[in-house]
Amino acid sequence: MSFLSKLHLRSAHAGLKRGGPPPCGCELPPRRKTAKAVKADKVATVVDRRRGAWRGAVLPLVAIALWSVVSALHLVKSGLLVSPLEVLQTGWQQTISGALLRALSASLAREASGFVIGTAGGLLLGSLLGFSRLARRMVGPSFDTFKQISLFAWIPLISVWFGLGDAAKVVFLSLAALLPVTAHTCDGIHAVPRSYIEVARAFRYSRLQLIAYVIFPAALPSIFTGIYLALIYSWLATLGAEYLLVSGSGIGNLLIDGSEQFRMDLVLFGIIVVGLTGWALNALARAIERAVFARRPARTS
User: Fold this and answer.
1) Which domain holds residue 295?
2) How does it sit in the membrane (predicted)?
3) Which residues of 249-275 are buried (b: 16+ CB within 10 A; e: fewer)?
4) Is the pLDDT of residue 16 over 50?
5) How many domains would you assign to the chain?
6) What pTM was computed for the model?
């Protein structure tokens, strides 16, 4: 029997002892949907998602059309705004030469390293602040002060301690991922309803069972939000680190090279790559979140 079932059962017994009706959660379960109805719901969901994707493509298509018109009519100096065709040609050259793959793989490798290190540290620190009153009193005020400091304010100190190479960039990205994961993990643990903990104690759950079967599942949405923000912040911080710590290759360095050579085609191509990569990371995170939460009802039913 799952924890939620025990919670409903205990509420029903309490209602019967008081002589009142059982709570709504103890009514007869609704009839299960047929396979045909479930399939129809899935098809409707897929259609809605596809319609949303097409609607989301309207604004980029309009922007590209306006860009083409402005460049074709020479409303802006050609040195400041090149045509989409030139950007496409530059992108093809960067792709076949392997420069795009080298730059993108270097940036994603740094982003992945910083994200994993920062997320792991954030989960540990957030859990410590969430479960331990002593840690919350001793470390909590310092952490609240630490997260108010701008992330880029650490660049001078990091560059002195770790140089300008990949190690400094990974440390910077780890800080970017650490803060949201820590904050949302701690908040998620504190937001667990007190009634859940009281019922678990009534059923004599051990502390480990309380954490594994009650607190952690209840705090999981907030934890996922922190991880999702960490993924976004670490990608944005990747570009900032490559701008400020210019040693090595990466998408940020590709943008710097384009601006120094006054090649707007290269700059615009780099911006498009950055946007598409961020969109792909966002879509990946949302897909993983949907997959995880889609399995939760089956486990707790």
Assistant:
1) 98-300
2) Multi-pass membrane protein
3) bbbbbbbbbbeeeebbbbbbbbeebbe
4) no
5) 1
6) 0.73
